[in-house]
Structure formats: structure tokens, C-alpha cells
């Protein structure tokens, strides 16, 4: 039967035809979850258009009161996935019945930095219901009386590390008899940070019927231990988003560079001086000494960087991250304390993989002449550095901290495990943005060929890299070789060698001590002063020069004859029009030129031989 065509030349259906309509399933929105209007208003203000996979699956389950264990990669929105349902439940209970104030939700995190980040997110999403919901972060470095007074107000949500929560529960200041929600963020890290006893004590105190939500980047034995401790009503609903993450279009490009130990410094100099990588960069190094060694090396070329490690006060670290996220700094050199330095006990456990005889031999062999000066083993470490070292437990750069709009993660020193690598590179390519990870590794045949730059960690680079590749292939990611012609950098080698020789062990120790003293002085007590004197804030910049090594002005500029082909475009900067003003002759100004003869004579005589212009009778006398 001939059919009539419509205006689009498509046959129209006739009576008796079976019409089959296919509808593409609509993506969930925050409004489809039935959340409180005040929370949705905050979501709109924060410009979250659609929920991420972990949010779209976790929020409905949490709103139904189920226990949830969710595994999702870093930067996938896990914080919002548990905050929105918890806040909605608190608002719902407050509207239905008015009872005495009590703490409804306890959020446990492994680090103080993550506690601050979660608290900031809480404040942002409760801005339209701040009168109904109060939250407190009890991990801050403050007097116990201040914390006690804040908890006496009975906040609805408390953010804490397990040790701090256990302390105030034992003191009967933090009361959990009416607790409804328990959240454990970065659950796979909480036990590995040494909180097992605190968690066991908290589990015995919690009332029955508490909803437990656990968020993790990996599903390991630690999460099973936490499940048995806190999910007493039954097994939680496990959400593993590996399949969804594998189906997503990759936003992270991963590259490796095979290099000698000393060439790491040459490469990082070329990368930043020739602007081969643009945007904000996080450079991960092995330990605190390495932080300052790289910082002092780059400073000699006019490349300024911030340092982030566990020695610095918590407020200083948080201030550095906040200003980095705001775009004030472009380069951070970070020591991943949780994986490398950490506390003494975990560190010894990790290094047991190296035989004790070999380890002792390496340590003895490391007492070499570095930068022309012999290491002073007998000299004790400075008091400020020694005093700050013991407080590493609740610090970790590669996990939890929300670095925003990071273009590249540069592993100057390869991490010790594939897991640590995954968390490091998770600092970039967050929220659907593109990012790059670049890692240097030292092959065995080049290890210990340049003793001044040798560290023990590089001995296992090839074995660790093999595990990293295997782990990334399981996730559908690929690590490629970064092709770089080292021959083009030979012209820079003499400059690099001169700068590296200046960074001695003594200079590194002085820079560490000076940085720590400076940051301790710039404490929160000076906040009011800088509010009244904002021009003084320039003294608080975290990327200021250390002046621990001799400054060589010629190293800050790259001569044209050293630049490779195409390098001049990267170095060229348009400064615009610069007007040249002709200096006025003294005495012929608009005011008639009343200047003293003595001052004029001194200016005219500037640069003359002082012995020839010597006047024995005195100035102004002949």
C-alpha cells in the first residue's frame, strides 16, 4: 500500500500499524533524588549539573537507609555522594519532630587535611540551611578548651580523625548515643594509618541501627575489617564502579622517561625553563630532603616553587594548597609522607623488603662527598626539624587533598608501590578535565652512577614500574614512553652542573630549618594583623627564595645560542610598549632648581675616584 510522505519525506503510519516508540533512558539529575530544596539550591550554586556515577548509585541507597561500601577512583565525587543523603536525612528528622539537640552524623577521615576539605564542602552545601545544621571539625590545632566549647554546642555533624573522635568520646564531651550516620572516608587508609585501636573502641560505643557509609579508592582487606566492625546489621551494599570507569573516555595521559639520576635535574630544568609543560604542576619526590634539594636547584634558574611536606605546620600546608587551588602558585614540590617517610614503625616495616646487610651497606656507602662537602654525620639535626618530624601520621599528599585544575603530576622519584602511583596521578584529570602524568625512572645499569644525586629508593625503579604498568593495563590505561631528545640539552649541561653542585647537604638542612621557623612564625595568630595590613601578605608567600645557596644571576636567563629550534617562541614574552624618559637636569626642574651645592656636587662626583676628589678641608670648603 502506498503511503503518504510527510514534510520530511518519511512515510506516515496508517491505521492498524503497530507503533513502537524507543526512548533513550534519561540520565539522573540531582532533582530526581528528592533531596531537600535547600540542598538542591546549593548544588545549583556550586554549578554541579549532573551526578557522577558514584553519586547516582550511592545517593538513592543511602536515602533508603542502607549501609553502603563504594569504591570509586579519586576525583569522582565521593564526598558529595555521602554528604547529600546524610544532610537530607538530618533536615527531614528536624522537620518531622523537634527534640533535644544531638550529634546525628560522625565523619571519620584519615588526615587533618581531608578533614578540613570535608568541612569546607559541608559549609558550602549547608549555606542555605546553616541555621538548621551545624558542623564542627575537631582535628584543628587549637586549645582543648576551645574544642570543648565547640562540642558543647552539640553540632549535628562532627568531622574528625579516629584518634580525635575517640579522645573526646572518652572525655564524655562528644556524645554518640543518638548517632544515626557513620561515614568513613578513604576507608582503605584509615586502618593503615594506625587507627585500629581507636576504631575498635568507637565500634563498641556506637548504638545499634547506625547507618554506615564507607568510601574507598580500593577494595582491600582493610575495608573487610571495617565492615565487620561497624556493619553489625548485615553486609553492606557494595558498589564497585570499575566497569563504569573503564567505559569512560580516558582523560589522563601517562608517560615515562628513562633517565640517569643526575639527568632528572637536567630534565626538570628544561621542562620548566623552556615551558614544555604549561599550567599547574605537582612534583612528587621521595622525602623531605629531596623537596628542598629540588627547590634550591630550581631557584637558581629563577623558577619558584612551594614545598609541601609533613614537617610544616598543618595551617601552613592547608594555606599552601588553598592558594595553589586559587592559582597563586603554579608549582608544588611534595613529599608523599604516607608512602615514604611516615612514622618510624610503618617505615621500618616497608623497608624490611631490603636485606638488613644490604641496607646497612647502602647507608654506609651513602656517606659520600656531595657537592664538594662531606656529609656531617655527627652533627645533630636541628631542633625545629627534629621536633616536627614526629607528627607525620595524619598527613598524606597523594590521598584526600583536593588539588584543583592540575595540568600535570610529575613523579620526579618513582613511588614505592603501584598503589601509591595510582593515588599520585589521581591528583590530575579530575572532574572530566584532561591531565598528564610524567614519571622518571632509573634503570639498574644507571643506578649509583652519580652518587651526589643517588637515593636508595631508585634501586627498585624497574620492578616498581613493571607493577605499575600491570596495574594500569588492568584498568584499561596505557603508559607510553615520552620521546625527548637529550642531545638537545647537552648545551645546558654546564649550567645544570654548576647549579647542582651548589645544593649541598648543609644548604638543604639550612633551608629546611629556615622554612620551618618561618612557617611557625606565620601562624593563625597573625591573621588579624594581615587583615589590617594586606601589603604585608607578600612576606607569607610559600614560594619565596630560600637564599641557602649562592645566587648566580646569569643562570636565570637562557641565552639565545643555547635554545633549541622552536625554543625562542616559548621564551619570548611580549612586554608591550616601554617609554624611555629623558632624565631632567638638576636645577632646571619646575620648582626653579633650588638644590644644595653639596648634594649636587656629590651627585656629579658619583663614580669618580674618591682619592682624587678628596677634600681635606671638608665638604663645601675650598
Write the layout of secondary structure elements.
Elements: H1 37-45, H2 53-63, E1 68-71, H3 78-96, E2 105-108, H4 112-125, E3 135-137, H5 144-152, E4 157-160, H6 162-170, E5 181-184, H7 187-190, H8 196-205, E6 211-216, H9 221-230, E7 237-240, H10 242-247, E8 252-258, H11 263-273, E9 280-285, H12 288-299, E10 306-308, H13 314-325, E11 331-335, H14 344-351, H15 356-365, E12 369-370, E13 373-374, H16 383-389, E14 406-411, H17 418-425, E15 435-441, H18 461-474, E16 479-481, H19 493-502, H20 505-521, H21 527-532, H22 567-571, H23 597-604
Parallel strand pairs: 1-6, 1-7, 2-4, 2-5, 3-4, 5-6, 8-15, 8-16, 9-11, 9-14, 10-11, 14-15
Antiparallel strand pairs: 12-13
Helix pairs in contact: 2-3, 3-4, 6-8, 12-20, 17-18
User: What class do helices, strands and sheet pairing give?
Assistant: alpha/beta
At CATH level 3, the topology of the largest domain is Rossmann fold
Task: Characterize the largest beta sheet: strand count, sense, and whether it forms a barrel.
Answer: 7 strands, parallel
What proportion of the residues form beta strands (DSSP E)?
Answer: 5-15%
What's the total number of strands? 16
- The level of helicity is 25-40%
* CATH-assigned homologous superfamily of the largest domain: P-loop containing nucleotide triphosphate hydrolases
Instruction: Write down the CATH class of the largest domain.
Output: Alpha Beta
How would you sum up the global shape?
globular
List the uncertain runs: 16-25, 339-393, 585-593
Mean of residue pLDDT values? 77
- Distinct helical segment count: 23
Main location: nucleus
GO molecular function: ATP binding; hydrolase activity; RNA binding; RNA helicase activity
Organism: Neohortaea acidophila
Catalytic activity: ATP + H2O = ADP + phosphate + H(+)
Amino acid at each position: 500500500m502506498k503511503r503518504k510522505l510527510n514534510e520530511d519525506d518519511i512515510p506516515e503510519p496508517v491505521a492498524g500499524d503497530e507503533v513502537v516508540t524507543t526512548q533513550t533512558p534519561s540520565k539522573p539529575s540531582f532533582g530526581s533524588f528528592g533531596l531537600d530544596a535547600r540542598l538542591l539550591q546549593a548544588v545549583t550554586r556550586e554549578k554541579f549539573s549532573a551526578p557522577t556515577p558514584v553519586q547516582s548509585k550511592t545517593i538513592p541507597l543511602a536515602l533508603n537507609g542502607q549501609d553502603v561500601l563504594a569504591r570509586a577512583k579519586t576525583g569522582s565525587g565521593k564526598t558529595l555522594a555521602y554528604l547529600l543523603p546524610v544532610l537530607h536525612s538530618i533536615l527531614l528528622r528536624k522537620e518531622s519532630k523537634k527534640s533535644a539537640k544531638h550529634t546525628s552524623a560522625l565523619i571519620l577521615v584519615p588526615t587533618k587535611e581531608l578533614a578540613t576539605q570535608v568541612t569546607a564542602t559541608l559549609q558550602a552545601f549547608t549555606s542555605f540551611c546553616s541555621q538548621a545544621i551545624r558542623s564542627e571539625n575537631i582535628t584543628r590545632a587549637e586549645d582543648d578548651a576551645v574544642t570543648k566549647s565547640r562540642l558543647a554546642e552539640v553540632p549535628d555533624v562532627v568531622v574528625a580523625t579516629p584518634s580525635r573522635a575517640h579522645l573526646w568520646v572518652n572525655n564524655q564531651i562528644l556524645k554518640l548515643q543518638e548517632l544515626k550516620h557513620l561515614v568513613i572516608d578513604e576507608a582503605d587508609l584509615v586502618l593503615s594509618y594506625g587507627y585500629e585501636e581507636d576504631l575498635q573502641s568507637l565500634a563498641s560505643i556506637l548504638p545499634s541501627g547506625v547507618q554506615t557509609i564507607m568510601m574507598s579508592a580500593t577494595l582491600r582487606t582493610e575495608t573487610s575489617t571495617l565492615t565487620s566492625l561497624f556493619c553489625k546489621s548485615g553486609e553492606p551494599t557494595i558498589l564497585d564502579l570499575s566497569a563504569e570507569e573503564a567505559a569512560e573516555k580516558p582523560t589522563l595521559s601517562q608517560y615515562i622517561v628513562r633517565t640517569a639520576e643526575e639527568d632528572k635535574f637536567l630534565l626538570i630544568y628544561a621542562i620548566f625553563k623552556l615551558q614544555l609543560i604549561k599550567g599547574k604542576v605537582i612534583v612528587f619526590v621521595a622525602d623531605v630532603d629531596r623537596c628542598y634539594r629540588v627547590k634550591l636547584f630550581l631557584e637558581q634558574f629563577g623558577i619558584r616553587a612551594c614545598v609541601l611536606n609533613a614537617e610544616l605546620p598543618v595551617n601552613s600546608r592547608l594555606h599552601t594548597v588553598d592558594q595553589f587551588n586559587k592559582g597563586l602558585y603554579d608549582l608544588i614540590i611534595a613529599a608523599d609522607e604516607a608512602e615514604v617517610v611516615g612514622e618510624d614503625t610503618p617505615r621500618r616495616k616497608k623497608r624490611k623488603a631490603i636485606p638488613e646487610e644490604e641496607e646497612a651497606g647502602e647507608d654506609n656507602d651513602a656517606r659520600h662527598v656531595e657537592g664538594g662537602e662531606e656529609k656531617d654525620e655527627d652533627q645533630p639535626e636541628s631542633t625545629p626539624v627534629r621536633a616536627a618530624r614526629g607528627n607525620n601520621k595524619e598527613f598524606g599528599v597523594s590521598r584526600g587533598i583536593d588539588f584543583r585544575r592540575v595540568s600535570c603530576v610529575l613523579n620526579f622519584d618513582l613511588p614505592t608501590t603501584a598503589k601509591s602511583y595510582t593515588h599520585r596521578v589521581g591528583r590530575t584529570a579530575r572532574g572530566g578535565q584532561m591531565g598528564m602524568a610524567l614519571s622518571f625512572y632509573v634503570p639498574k645499569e644507571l643506578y649509583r652512577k652519580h652518587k651526589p644525586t643517588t637515593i636508595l629508593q631508585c634501586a627498585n625503579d624497574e620492578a616498581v614500574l613493571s607493577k605499575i604498568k600491570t596495574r594500569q593495563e588492568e584498568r584499561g590505561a596505557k603508559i607510553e614512553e615520552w620521546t625527548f631528545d637529550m642531545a638537545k640539552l647537552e648545551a645546558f649541561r654546564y649550567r645544570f652542573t654548576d647549579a647542582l653542585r651548589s645544593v649541598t647537604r648543609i644548604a638543604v638542612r639550612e633551608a629546611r630549618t629556615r622554612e620551618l621557623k618561618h612557617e611557625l612564625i606565620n601562624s593563625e595568630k597573625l591573621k588579624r594583623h594581615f587583615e589590617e595590613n594586606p601589603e604585608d601578605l607578600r612576606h607569607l608567600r610559600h614560594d619565596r627564595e630560600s637564599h641557602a645557596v649562592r645566587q648566580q644571576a646569569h643562570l636565570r636567563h637562557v641565552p639565545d645560542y643555547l635554545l633549541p629550534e622552536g625554543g625562542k617562541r616559548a621564551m619570548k614574552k611580549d612586554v608591550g610598549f616601554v617609554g624611555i624618559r629623558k632624565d631632567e637636569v638638576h636645577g632646571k626642574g619646575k620648582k626653579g632648581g633650588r638644590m644644595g651645592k653639596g648634594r649636587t656636587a656629590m651627585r656629579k662626583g658619583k663614580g669618580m675616584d674618591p682619592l682624587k676628589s678628596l677634600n681635606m678641608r671638608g665638604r663645601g670648603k675650598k
